[in-house]
Amino acid sequence: MNHVNAPDGTPLVFDAYEPAQPALAVLFLHDWHPERTGLAERFAELGVELRDGGFAAYFLEQRGHGRSGGRRGHLSRFSQLLGDLQTLRRAVRRRHNVPQILLGHGFGGLIVLRYLETQPGEPPAAAVVASPWLASRSRPAVWKRLAATLADLWPTFPTGSGAAYMTAGARAELQWAQRAVLADCQRIERPLLLLLGETDAVIDRGAVHRFAQDLGTRATLLEYPGLGHDLFSAPQVRLELSSFVAEYRSWDRDRKYE
Fold first, then answer.
1. Can you tell me the distance from the alpha carbon of 102 to that of 109, in angstroms, rounded to the nearest whole number?
2. Cα-Cα-Cα-Cα dihedral sign, residues 24, 28, 221, 113
3. What pLDDT is recorded for position 199?
4. Would you say residue 256 has pLDDT above 90?
5. Exposed end of the chain (fewer CB within 10 Å): N or C?
6. Which residues pair with 82 in a beta bridge?
7. What torsion, rounded to 10 degrees, do the Cα atoms 221, 92, 187, 151 define?
8. Exposed, middle or buried by CB within 10 Å (0-12, 13-18, 19+), for 181?
9. Over 60: is that where the pLDDT of 208 sits?
10. Tens digits of per-residue pLDDT, 43-99?
11. Domain boundary assignment for the chain
């Protein structure tokens, strides 16, 4: 278990899977799981596979999740998540000065996409986004939509339960981020691999298709028949990921990431 402090001082935890001399680093951002424990064990198999392939892998437990600090299920500003990712990237560079690939799932994919749109000065080699939470498949209940309007007056007002638990402030910030990512997709310049399960019942698959179409040749969309939202539990998806990562072994190897 490794620690780093976010720009606002929030303690963040990440797990590292590192070979002796990695060819590159993969930085993973998980889906929305504010009340779930055992995030480290959930992705251990993927971390071991990447490490055994010669890649360093880092799994950040995001603020308000798992062992990291922050109020459970709450976001003050979505931009804080971009700062958290930037902090992780710099911590990884201090360990291994190698090219980086960003990997996001669901909510984590939304963060990766917004990062690509707003942080052009320090681009990763590429990014992989699975089941990106650009929009939900089902329309939120009326009371949840009304709760989001309370964000300014009562940002910590609780909405939802279990995996869907979040505060009114978090709900408003995530809805803003979804609109922003869709509006600013033309800012993405790095190669992007989008992964989508054909039976995903969580996200709006149509939004992902439209997003990929708007990106044109900058994005590759792979769809998996019979698979749902949790793609990284499937061996064929992990194999596709390893193959994609391997293509960037020698990406800009002479560049210094200071």
1. 9
2. negative
3. 97
4. no
5. C
6. none
7. 100
8. buried
9. yes
10. 899 999 999 999 999 999 999 999 999 999 999 999 999 999 999 999 999 999 999
11. 2-137+185-246
pLDDT tens digits for range 144-186 = 556 666 667 778 888 777 667 889 899 999 999 999 999 999 9
Superfamily name and number for 2-137+185-246: Alpha/Beta hydrolase fold, catalytic domain (3.40.50.1820)
Question: Which amino acid is residue 32, in one-letter code?
Answer: W
Q: Long-range pairs for 121-124 at CB < 8 Å and ≥24 separation?
A: 122/86, 122/89, 122/257, 123/189, 123/190, 124/27, 124/89, 124/99, 124/100, 124/190
Q: How many CA atoms lie within 13 A of 103 on its CB side?
A: 26
